[in-house]
Amino acid sequence: MTISLYAASVPVFKQMLNALSDVLGKAQAHAEAKNIDANVFLQARLYPDMFPLVRQVQIAVDFAKGVSARLAEVELPKYDDTETTFADLQALIAKVLAFVEQIEAKQIDGKEGIEIITRPGTPKEKRFTGQSYLLTYGLPQFFFHVTTAYAILRHNGVEIGKRDYMGAF
Hints:
It is a single chain. This protein is mostly helical. It has helices at residues 10-33, 38-42, 53-72, 86-101, 105-108, 130-155, 162-166, and strands spanning 115-118, 126-129. The chain has a single domain (10-166), classed as dinb family like domain (Four Helix Bundle (Hemerythrin (Met), subunit A)), CATH 1.20.120. Helix content is 59%, strand content 5%. A two-stranded antiparallel sheet has the order 1-2. Helix 1 (10-33) runs antiparallel to helix 3 (53-72) and helix 3 (53-72) packs antiparallel against helix 6 (130-155). The longest helix has 26 residues, at 130-155. It starts with 9 loop residues before the first helix and ends with a helix.
């Protein structure tokens, strides 16, 4: 039995983005309940050379929209990454969920062999087939940043667990 590229991408992105939104909501509520400046969480990092929470969320949503758009061969939406608050991050996630929601299985399935080029014309240019792009690059990158966002918040005392990370499935 085979699995479709769509089934391995869009529903996964939707599940995890909704879970990330819920986790951010819990973080905001925690900050308010404990009288903690929200920026403590928004700018928190696991290690000094890692990106803060805000950037982790921005990159996660970039991968959800980028992978979906490239596999569907539709125009990739561009966002400025100017988010500074929990509300900004929630709006960004909602915007990306709305974009991803529009992509249908027929736009992605069968695209295993298409060529996807990331960072074309730069020293970091990479060439993938649609399937390898999703499975060896897009999903691992997406999960890394979602997981790191979760870990930053958990490390900083937000009461979240595995069910929060996984979301509804």
